[in-house]
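Supplementary Methods. Inverse-folding protocol.

Structures were first reduced to a discrete structure-token string of length 969. This string, shown here, constituted the complete conditioning input.
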């Protein structure tokens, strides 16, 4: 007989039956199901035999075949719609060595900088690229998308402005999706938007000479689109000056490719520049994921949201990178946080940065000149045929006046294989990108009615930016750092990417046991379809008939997610967990307002909650009231009842995480949710810990009204070094009308047949749709039984680690059965009191043992939160347990005086190869103890590139762009 081939579930789950028997013996249960049923309260169990919409598990080959069929239903037209989204060439060296490389896509947010130097350098390159092109002082490590970045820019302006006004001015020529997002977000914060045609404002030539330019309204800030959505290029300098004179700040959304030829936002006085880096080699992906960007002028560095990479030094003075300033701001400042965005789009930012590294300033300028030349050529053809253009000055986008015939032009273009933008019945937009050919220009001209002579339009002789005034042409240099000039050949680029990857620790090296983060297997089969052109080269605003396969896949995934969570419908639009939180809270706000309960604005949040909860509540226009937790880490019921009573008439919502942030299944959860409902509030269940629940319980059955899910955790989308993520929002029927809508959505109905009418939460209708095939494939190949098995295996792994380490480190919280959920908190505070060894020392020493440290000091200072996930095998779990036990012994030796408190393997960790080879060894422990604490490392050692990094030095000496090469000599 042929050998038995293991199904996908067995490939995904790291422990087989024999390993699980060993683990169960350590935990004290006879079966995995018995263990999970003891941990999960009986009152919330679901019947796994119930009728399911989730089909039985498919094989990997079957899942790929189904995805191929879905992909074939997407029409691969040439997208020339524009509006901030462009087709692009991803250099193969970047596609193969970054996008498709697990060394890059399975890494986590660089909270442990010593083992994240590769991606941190890539992000420094990204920040340098953005600051150079925008002409501003400091850029962050990326934003979620352009429209979200504009909203964050508005909030920066509000915080930093000297104006007392609540008005924010919005360019009439802004991208329509950005205007939709601004309107939704501003309403909850009491910000009044005023749309202004800046072309009629000071500094812009009036349409008629006898007109007097209008005066700008008083405002705390203004937003300008540069170039405009219409393609118009103009000089905003006088508008900027007028806003500044009234005490306001100016946010400019700028196209980075255009900025290689046009004056930078910094040169005309903008305070904040935002936008997207998508056209720098990042596929369209039906809207994402893409890396937005934000840069600010000097003096606003500490107002930046998101992540900021800075340069510091390690223990021996070598330059090293780390996250700066507002790292994990939400956990420190909670409801006082200035943003709820706690991550970035790292993988995509790396791709965009490497696109700039590979092409360099001359290459980028050549690409931009080619785009501008072809646009000028098409403009000349259209004008020569008697057609009128809306704007005389442009870079890559034309708006063409076609009175009453827009639909005919659009249909002719579609018949030829092109997607153009229908602005209105008299105007059609067309955008040129780096993939546009002379034959494409000829086809587009034909669609506009020009005679088809069969010859391609020849751009020879056209002058780039011929229509743009000379004083708007860029004169200053950019990307002068050597990194943007050193890697022109593919050999050099390949080696640079490999060198950076070697400096990092990702799942392809070993376990990343980060509590609350669920670093599980991201299977190659799940990842395969992301690169297929039928999914990757699709514009987010393409006609519905061109994206039938995408819409079918999205509907299936929405349906499956609704079922496993116990909700009625799902929106996949939020492109991060933080945005899913915000969407859910805005849905609650919309529900109360629709019912006339305008006074319901109080949001109850347990003291243990993830920091973004409080920040999201504030951004949804709510007032945060903290609920205490008891000694077991559960919500304090007495305090909850007291807070509900105190705010009975103003209660909007309770936010809870289940299982709790402490990694425990709270047995009183039904009582908690009922108390909130009885008071007229809604229950938001944070889905961060869903990996401990799938198949055994459902948020909707717990009393949840709405939840966000983390597809980059529970549903196998890789973290990518801190992004991409997808944070869908799932809700009961009564909240469905208030879930995110979008002006360009290809369909109105969603899972369950519900229509959403809430405002936009992301720039694209389906958010980061380009990575949804990953989660679709995960559910399809696991099936309902496989999802349940994964939960059981994850809970078993966490309890096994807890059982084996309990004698060495107190396990801080457990449920009534003495069990944890999918993660356990190891309390290192007694160890510090006994030996002086800190949680930082243990985390850094784990690097010497070949591990990424667990989550440090969250949710309790001085602890490690360990989440092994279901994908790790028993050998890796045992290796981690034994490392922790050995480190405990080392700490005891320090406490006993065998090693000095200021010179021992823990306080000096991590140890580099240089440390044990170059230096004169004067430490009281051996070189072997330093770098080979266990013999198994001799052949498999991961060598950290730097010693322990001085965090405080980096904040005192803030440098957030590429340092000179000499710094690393």
């Amino acid at each position: 007989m042929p050998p038995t081939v293991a199904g996908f579930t067995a490939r995904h789950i790291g422990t087989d039956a024999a390993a699980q028997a060993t683990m169960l013996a350590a935990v004290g249960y006879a079966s995995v199901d018995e263990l999970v049923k003891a941990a999960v309260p009986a009152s919330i169990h679901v019947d796994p035999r119930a009728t399911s919409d989730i089909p039985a598990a498919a094989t990997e080959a079957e899942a790929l075949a189904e995805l191929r069929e879905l992909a074939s239903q997407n029409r691969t037209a040439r997208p020339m719609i524009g509006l901030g989204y462009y087709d692009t060439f991803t250099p193969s060296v970047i596609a193969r060595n970054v996008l498709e490389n697990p060394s890059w896509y399975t890494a986590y947010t660089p909270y442990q900088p010593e083992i994240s130097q590769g991606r941190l350098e890539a992000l420094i390159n990204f920040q340098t690229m953005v600051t150079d092109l925008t002409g501003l002082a400091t850029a962050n490590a990326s934003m979620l998308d352009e429209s979200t970045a504009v909203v964050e820019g508005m909030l920066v302006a509000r915080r930093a402005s000297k104006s007392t006004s609540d008005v924010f001015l919005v360019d009439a020529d802004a991208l329509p999706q950005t205007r939709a997002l601004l309107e939704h977000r501003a309403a909850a914060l009491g910000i009044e938007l005023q749309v202004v045609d800046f072309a009629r404002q000071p500094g812009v030539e009036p349409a008629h000479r006898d007109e007097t330019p209008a005066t700008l309204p008083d405002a705390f800030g203004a937003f300008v689109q540069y170039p405009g959505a219409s393609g118009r290029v103009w000089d905003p300098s006088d508008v900027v000056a007028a806003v500044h004179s009234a005490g306001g700040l100016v946010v400019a959304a700028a196209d980075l490719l255009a900025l290689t030829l046009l004056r930078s936002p910094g040169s005309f006085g903008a305070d904040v520049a935002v936008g997207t880096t998508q056209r720098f080699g990042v596929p369209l992906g039906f809207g994402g994921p893409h890396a937005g960007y934000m840069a600010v002028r000097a003096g606003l560095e500490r107002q930046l949201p998101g992540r900021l990479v800075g340069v510091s030094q390690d223990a021996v003075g070598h330059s090293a990178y780390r996250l700066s300033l507002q790292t994990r701001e939400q956990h420190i400042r909670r409801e006082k946080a200035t943003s709820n965005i706690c991550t970035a789009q790292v993988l995509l930012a790396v791709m965009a940065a490497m696109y700039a590294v590979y092409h360099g300033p001359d290459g980028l300028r050549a690409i931009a000149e080619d785009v501008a030349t072809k646009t000028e050529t098409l403009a000349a053809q259209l004008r020569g045929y008697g057609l009128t253009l809306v704007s005389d000055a442009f870079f890559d986008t034309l708006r063409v006046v076609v009175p009453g015939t827009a639909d005919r032009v659009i249909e002719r273009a579609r018949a030829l294989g092109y997607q153009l933008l229908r602005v209105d019945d008299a105007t059609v937009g067309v955008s040129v990108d780096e993939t546009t050919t002379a034959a494409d220009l000829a086809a587009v001209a034909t669609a506009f009615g020009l005679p088809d002579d069969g010859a391609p339009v020849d751009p020879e002789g056209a002058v780039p930016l011929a229509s743009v005034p000379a004083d708007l042409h860029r004169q200053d240099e950019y990307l002068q750092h050597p990194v943007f000039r050193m890697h022109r050949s593919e050999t050099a680029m390949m080696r640079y990417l490999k060198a950076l990857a070697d400096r990092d620790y990702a799942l392809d090296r070993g376990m990343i046991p980060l509590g609350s983060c669920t670093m599980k297997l991201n299977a190659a089969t799940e990842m395969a379809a992301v690169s297929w052109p039928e999914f990757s080269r699709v514009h987010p605003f393409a006609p519905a008939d061109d994206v039938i396969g995408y819409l079918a896949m999205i509907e299936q995934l929405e349906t499956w997610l609704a079922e496993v969570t116990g909700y009625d419908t799902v929106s996949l639009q939020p492109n991060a967990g933080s945005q899913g939180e915000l969407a859910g809270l805005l849905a609650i706000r919309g529900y109360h307002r629709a019912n006339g309960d305008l006074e319901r604005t109080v949001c109850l949040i347990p003291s243990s909650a993830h920091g973004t909860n409080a920040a999201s509540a504030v951004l949804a226009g709510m007032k945060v009231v903290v609920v205490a937790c008891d000694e077991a880490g559960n919500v304090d019921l007495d305090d909850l009842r007291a807070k509900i009573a105190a705010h009975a008439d103003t209660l909007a919502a309770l936010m809870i995480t289940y299982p709790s942030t402490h990694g425990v299944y709270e047995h009183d959860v039904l009582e908690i949710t009922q108390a909130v409902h009885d008071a007229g509030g809604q229950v938001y269940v944070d889905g961060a810990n869903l990996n401990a629940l799938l198949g055994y319980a459902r948020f909707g059955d717990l009393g949840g009204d709405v939840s966000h899910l983390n597809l980059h955790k529970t549903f196998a989308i890789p973290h990518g070094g801190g992004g991409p993520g997808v944070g869908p929002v799932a809700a009961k029927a009564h909240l469905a009308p208030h879930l995110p809508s979008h002006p360009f959505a290809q369909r109105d109905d969603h899972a369950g047949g519900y229509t959403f009418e809430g405002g936009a939460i992301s720039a694209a209708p389906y958010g980061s749709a380009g990575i949804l095939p990953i989660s679709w494939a995960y559910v399809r190949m696991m099936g309902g039984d496989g999802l349940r098995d994964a939960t059981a295996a994850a809970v078993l792994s966490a309890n096994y680690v807890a059982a084996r380490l309990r004698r060495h480190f107190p396990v801080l919280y457990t449920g009534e059965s003495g069990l944890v959920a999918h993660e356990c908190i190891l309390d290192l505070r007694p160890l510090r009191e006994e030996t002086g060894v800190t949680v930082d020392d243990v985390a850094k020493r784990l690097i010497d043992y070949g591990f990424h440290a667990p989550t440090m000091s969250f949710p309790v200072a001085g602890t490690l939160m360990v989440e092994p996930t279901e994908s790790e095998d028993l050998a890796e779990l045992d290796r981690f347990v034994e490392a922790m036990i050995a480190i405990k012994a080392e700490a005891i030796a320090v406490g006993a005086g065998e090693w000095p408190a200021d010179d021992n393997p823990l306080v000096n960790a991590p140890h580099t190869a240089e440390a044990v080879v170059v230096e004169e060894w004067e430490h009281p422990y051996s070189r072997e103890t330093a770098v080979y604490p266990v013999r198994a490392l001799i052949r498999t050692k991961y060598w950290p590139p730097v010693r322990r990094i001085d965090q405080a030095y980096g904040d005192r000496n803030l440098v957030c762009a590429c340092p000179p090469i000499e710094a690393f000599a």
